[in-house]
């Protein structure tokens, strides 16, 4: 059974940084596309970033140049380095594994002064 566990969320001031981690189990990690999505209060869940098995990333326009997705196949973990955080980045961040469309439980990121 595929399981994803996110960590690393928290409270940060505008302009600050956070690094999210998503530890995967029950899957052949290196063969999956791994993604990060987020959901702000009252809004739909939206795409943030994705990384392919060979390590090719793509990003939502809203985070391009500020966020970096990476993966460590030896540790079955995908990361999201978030820099220059803005108030509008406040959301619950979810890890996703594809194929299978498995989701983690989410981790809260709050950007506030």
Descriptive account of the structure:
This protein is an all-beta fold and 113 residues long. It is built from no helices and eleven strands. The strands form two sheets. Strands 2, 4, 5, 6, 9, 10 and 11 form a seven-stranded mixed sheet that branches. A four-stranded antiparallel sheet has the order 1-3-8-7, with no helix packed on it. Strand 7 and strand 8 form a beta hairpin. The chain is globular, with a radius of gyration of 13 Å. The N and C termini lie far apart (40 Å).
Q: Mind sketching the topology for me?
A:
Blueprint: E1 3-7, E2 10-12, E3 18-25, E4 33-39, E5 46-51, E6 57-59, E7 67-72, E8 77-82, E9 91-98, E10 102-103, E11 107-111
Parallel strand pairs: 2-11
Antiparallel strand pairs: 1-3, 3-8, 4-5, 4-9, 5-6, 7-8, 9-10, 9-11
Euclidean distance between termini CA atoms: 40 Å
Number of strands: 11
Query: Considering DSSP H and I runs of 4 or more, what fraction of the residues is helical?
Result: under 10%
Structural class by sheet pairing and helices? mainly beta
**Overall average pLDDT:** 97
Number of helices: 0
Shape field: globular
Order of helices and strands: EEEEEEEEEEE
The percent range for strand residues is over 45%
Mind describing the biggest β-sheet? Answer: 7 strands, mixed
Q: From the alpha-carbon coordinates, what is the Rg to the nearest angstrom?
A: 13 Å
Low-confidence stretches: none
């Amino acid at each position: 059974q595929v399981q994803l566990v996110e960590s690393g969320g928290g409270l940060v001031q505008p302009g600050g940084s956070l690094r999210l981690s998503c530890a995967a189990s029950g899957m052949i990690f290196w063969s999956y596309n791994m993604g990060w999505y987020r959901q702000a209060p009252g809004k739909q869940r939206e795409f943030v970033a994705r990384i392919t098995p060979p390590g090719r990333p793509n990003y939502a326009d809203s985070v391009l140049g500020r966020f970096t997705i990476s993966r460590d196949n030896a540790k079955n973990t995908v990361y999201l380095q978030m820099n220059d955080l803005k108030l509008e980045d406040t959301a619950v961040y979810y890890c996703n594994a594809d194929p299978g469309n498995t989701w983690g439980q989410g981790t809260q990121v709050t950007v506030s002064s």
